[in-house]
Amino acid sequence: MTATSTPATFSATAFIELALDNQVLRFGEYVLKSGRVSPYFFNAGLLATGEMLSLLATGYADALAKQVQASAPESKSESEEPLVIFGAAYKGIPFVAATAQALWQQHGINAQWGYNRKEVKDHGEGGSLVGTDLQGKSVWVIDDVITAGTAMREVVGILSEAGARIAGILVALDRKERGQNELSAIQELASTLNIPVQALVDIDDIIVYLQEKGEVENLQKMRQYREQYGV
């Protein structure tokens, strides 16, 4: 198989096409934990090739680089906090490592990164955190999809115990579905934590993609689902 170069920029269309080609994104009928029957399913665990991980990391890196640029001090005399990124075990670990590399290689940003263990290590250096020291730092959390927000709240607790502040959350996909009320899980987290929660791709991007490709059946099901459960 001929190798291709790492993409310099991320596009929703390229990511959707690659996800479809590798069964990361599938259409059909899928029963979610909420009991809803979804016409599509996104399985980030299948982002299992260098090409897919590189494209995803490029998207994360592009979004984070924009955040760094927007928050840069007006004068060089002002102190500039380092960019710190965190990936939750287990899926978030390769995501955060690849993103740190993409930030350095594509944007010249030397981000600090870390992750947690599911089990606390009781020998060697011990503890449940690996990587950069998070104490007193502002941290961006990288994840795949936020469904109900339960797992992300656990991550927030882990970082809080480590003495870190949450700068924001960056995910691959936003399903834009209502949670317990009229807000989505992402909107609830953003409101509760008073932080930005961003996504590289959302359900509207998928709907636009299907429309451009003329896939009428899947498009109709996606629109109906969006109308019924969307925010």
What does this structure look like?
By secondary structure, the protein is of the alpha/beta class. It has a single domain, classed as Rossmann fold. The strands form 2 sheets. It has a 6-stranded mixed β-sheet, sandwiched between helices. The chain is globular, with a radius of gyration of 18 Å. The model has no long low-confidence stretch (mean pLDDT 89).
What is the class in the CATH system? Alpha Beta
H/E element order: HEEHEHEEEHEHEHH
Please identify, by name, the CATH architecture.
3-Layer(aba) Sandwich
Helix content: 40-55%
- Any idea of the CATH topology? Rossmann fold
The number of domains is 1
Category by helix and strand content = alpha/beta
Using only C-alpha atoms, the radius of gyration works out to 18 Å
Please count the helical segments: 7
Compact description:
By secondary structure, the chain is α/β, with parallel strands linked by helices. The chain has helices at residues 12-21, 50-71, 92-107, 150-161, 185-193, 203-213, 216-229; strands spanning 25-31, 37-42, 84-87, 112-121, 127-131, 138-145, 165-174, 197-202. The termini are far apart.
